[in-house]
UniProtKB/TrEMBL annotation:
The keyword Oxidoreductase does not apply. The lineage of its organism: Bacteria, Pseudomonadati, Spirochaetota, Spirochaetia, Leptospirales. InterPro entries: Dgk1-like. The chain crosses the membrane at residues 37-57, 63-82, 135-156, 168-186, 206-229, 241-263. The keyword Membrane applies. GO terms for molecular function: ATP-dependent diacylglycerol kinase activity; nucleotidyltransferase activity. It comes from Leptonema illini DSM 21528. This is Phosphatidate cytidylyltransferase. It comes from the Bacteria. Keywords: Membrane, Nucleotidyltransferase, Transferase, Transmembrane, Transmembrane helix.
């Protein structure tokens, strides 16, 4: 999920300053709406986790997380097998492109599809982090990324050396922050206890400060994201894990207990 812009070279204007930031007209094309709608399905795991949708299966407070971990492991294995077939078997590759080609970036035709990296990030987050961190970290990517891409493509004029725009980056921060506020409101409406990351002696300002910090870190992670291991590592993995790390660093630095941000693994013992 590339957040801001995928573009080639842009005309430069002016001075030495323009060596790393340039002014250009917005591209105005290249926003793949089908792909972005497909990305919205990435909200499925955090919604299922937060909604505890599998609680009917057993009298076990961790049943939903256990089921999701099993499903995510199975999904990762299935995706890796599918991607291996796509790379090695021409007939399967042709069928795959007919069915899903419109959802792919051109660069993904020669490497592993970004869905694999996203599913790996889901598995890591569900294994090790609290419900709130999982929801917020994945929401940052799923919702802020399309917003940043749209703004960068249609309104981005100040563009960095890598083609990503200042406007897109700011849109990513704003989208992440606003999605976090919506989550806080949902948390309060569902009477799920105190807002995440608020000390008993603290205030809503503490929660907003942590949220803002994590949103900025996630945007920087998107800006400097890269692709490695033939696509196993890309922004779909880097951004959610960077956001989770930001929540951990901020919360622990302010004196929160580890249980605020980490999931207790004792149930596995």
């Amino acid at each position: 999920m590339t957040a801001f812009l995928e573009s080639g070279s842009v005309p430069t204007v002016g001075s030495q300053f323009m060596k790393w930031i340039r002014i250009s007209e917005p591209i105005g094309r290249g926003f793949n709406l089908k792909r972005k709608i497909y990305h919205m399905a990435g909200l499925l795991v955090p919604v299922m986790l937060y909604g505890d949708v599998f609680r009917f299966l057993a009298d076990d407070p961790f049943i939903t997380r256990k089921v999701l971990i099993g499903l995510l492991i199975a999904a990762n294995i299935a995706l890796i097998v599918m991607e291996t077939l796509r790379m090695k078997h021409r007939g399967f590759r042709d069928l795959f492109y007919r069915l899903f080609g419109s959802l792919m970036k051109e660069s993904e035709r020669d490497r592993i599809h970004g869905t694999v990296a996203y599913m790996i990030s889901n598995l890591v987050l569900v294994l090790f982090f609290s419900d709130e961190v999982v929801v917020l970290s994945l929401t940052f990517l799923v919702l802020a990324d399309p917003l940043a891409a749209f703004v960068g493509i249609y309104y981005g004029r100040l563009r960095f050396w890598n083609g990503k725009s200042v406007e897109g980056m700011l849109a990513f921060v704003a989208g992440s922050f606003l999605s976090g506020i919506v989550f806080y409101l949902i948390q309060d409406a569902l009477n799920r206890g105190n807002l995440p990351f608020v000390l008993e002696s603290g205030s809503i300002g503490v929660a907003l400060a942590i949220l803002g910090f994590a949103a900025v870190v996630a945007a920087l992670a998107e800006f400097f994201s890269f692709t490695a291991l033939n696509g196993v590592v890309d922004d779909n993995l880097i951004v959610p894990l960077a956001a989770a790390a930001a929540f951990v660093i901020a919360a622990l630095s302010l004196g929160f207990l580890p249980a605020t941000v980490f999931f207790d693994l004792n149930w596995m013992l």
